[in-house]
Please model this.
Amino acid sequence: MNYEEFCAALQEELFNRLDTDYSVHRERVLKNNGVVLDSLTLLRSGKHCSPVISLEMLYEQFEKGRSLAELCEYMISVTDTDLPLSVTNLTSLNNFEDFRDCIVWRLISRDKNEELLKTVPWIPYLDLAIIFSLMIQSEGETQISSIITSAVSASWHMTAEDLFTLASENTPRIFPANFRRLEDVIEEYFPGAADFVPEDCPVPTLYVLTNDFAHNGAACVLYPDKLKDLADRFGSDLLILPSSIHEVLIVADSETFTEHDYQVFRNTIKNVNCESVPPEDFLSDHLYRYCRETDRLQIFTKSPAVQTAV
Model:
C-alpha cells in the first residue's frame, strides 16, 4: 500500500469507526523553514482545539507493522485527551492581558521562511528572524504553543518591538538557559558518539547553549547579557556555531586560531546541517562571532573589518 492509498484507507477506517460527534480534516500545515506537514485532525463536537497528527508519521508506523485499527485507536485516544484549560482560552484572544506573560520569542532562518514571515510580526537579526509565540503549556516534555500572527498582534495593537520587549522578560523565565560541555551532552543522549566532533577541531572543548527543554534553544543567544556573561567567563570573544533552531555551539575565540581553524568551524556547521539536522530544524550555515568589546554578535568573515553587524 503506497502513501496515498494508506491515507485514503485510514480516513475510511476512521469514518467507519467514528460517530457524528467527530469530524475528520486532512490539512497541509506550514511549518518552520517552509516544511509542509501533511496532517490529519479529528475534531470532536464541543471542542475548539485538537492535536494535529502527522500522516507521514502514521505511515511510518504502518510500514513498521501497526495496523490501521491500531492507528485509528491512537488518533481517537489523542483527540479525546482533555486539553489544559489554558488551551481553551485560545478560542478568544481578545483580552491581551490574559496572554502578555506567555509571549516568547523564537529564532529562525530568514531566507527559508519568506512565506511565514509575510503572516507574522518579526524582527530581523543578522541573517535570521525573531518571531513570537504564545507558550500555553510547558510542563516536562509537554509543550503547547501557538505562533502569534499579524492579525492577532494587530488586534492587540502591539508591534513587533512591543512583543520583543515582553518576550525579553518572559522567554528567559519560561525557558531558562542551559550551558554545558558538548561531550557531556553527547554522553547523555548519544553514548559513544565521539566522532560527532571532527578530528581536526581546533579546540579540545565545545559547549552547548540551549534551554532547559532543549527546544527552540538557539534563541538563548538573545537573552539579555547571556553572551556577555559567557565571554567574561572565558575572557575572550566567542564563536557561535548554529547547530539547529534548538541549540548553538560555543567556542572561546583565540588569537592562535588560523584561517584553517575558522574554516574547520564553517565546515562543521555545513556538514552537520547536511547530514544530521532535519530540514525543519535548520537555522543557518554561517559562523558567528560575539565581540566582547562591542557587545555585538556578527556574521564572521575573514576580515573583522568587514564583519556584518546586527
In short: Residues 84-89, 191-195, 303-310 have pLDDT under 50 and may be disordered. The radius of gyration is 22 Å. Residues 153 and 159 are 7 Å apart (CA to CA). Residues 259-275 form the longest helix (17 residues).
